[in-house]
Amino acid sequence: MFEPQFFEEWLREKKNMSETTIAYYISVATRFLKEYDNVNLENINNFIIQNAIKKRQTPVYSIMKAFVQYSEKDASQRNNMIENMIRPPVHDTPKRERAYLEEEDIVKIINNMRNEKHKIIAMLQDLTGVRAGDVMRIQRGNIIPEIYDNTNVLKIVIYGKGNKRNVIYVHDDIGQQLILHYIIKNRHSDQYYFMEQRGRSGILDIDSSKNYHTNYIAYFRDLKQSMARSGIEHKSFATHDYRRCYARRVWNKFKDLHVLQELLNHQNPATTMRYLKHSGLQNIDYHKQMQG
Question: What is the 3-state secondary structure (H, E, C) of the chain?
Fold first, then answer.
């Protein structure tokens, strides 16, 4: 029986993927298992033909390859399946560059979100650079008011990718007020502050992975609709881009790889370097000096 939460954990640990990508991988694997009873080479290739070739959904090949790596425990059988999987033709589609939005545009998006819970999630992503999924999994009791330097601050304990513990702080007064107002108003809800644990039937959903994806899709949809209302190109920004924009602000302020690694809670500095490389920030200051 396929249990999405274990595949989700495997993708986080082995592939280091974003929440959006993980959600897509799990949705494709779930669709495959609805169509086919067995994970064998013939069924996988039929699925690839139908989706990655006829419908030109090229990522399906990579998803099925990852699913075989995860599900097939016999190394010889696993390697044989991967070697004989049908590889779809590569289309010369340029990779879409992610957009960097100014803070005023991000605030506009957050203000135009319809769901109060989604506004809080987006605000926390913007203020701290935390992944959407990590915010949704903040459990009750892990948002703690404190005093620091004679001012109020909210301490938030997060268990993120690989169950890594991360402590963030919200110093922003308005942010603190909105968070406290929300959690007080919803103090009788389920164990998570920002994730409902009810299925479509209203019955408690004990499958945390399925429950997360239901909440994430609702959040993602609210984000896209808010962008349309804000007059911002909807294809240029996704939930993980809050984190990318945060990383850029951190780099602009500190110009320090170790600070960026610490604030993004990266265990490996190579991951932080990928953020700099893919965004072009590792060279932006050199170009500025050369052209100044």
Answer: CCCHHHHHHHHHHHHCCCHHHHHHHHHHHHHHHHHCCCCCHHHHHHHHHHHHHCCCCCHHHHHHHHHHHHHCCCHHHHHHHHHCCCCCCCCCCCCCCCCCCCHHHHHHHHHCCCCHHHHHHHHHHHHHCCCHHHHHCCECCCEEEEEECCEEEEEEEEECHHHCEEEEEECCHHHHHHHHHHHHHCCCCCCECCCCCECCCCCECCCHHHHHHHHHHHHHHHHHHHHHHHCCCHHHCCCCHHHHHHHHHHHHHHCCHHHHHHHHCCCCHHHHHHHHHHHCHHHHHHHHHHHC
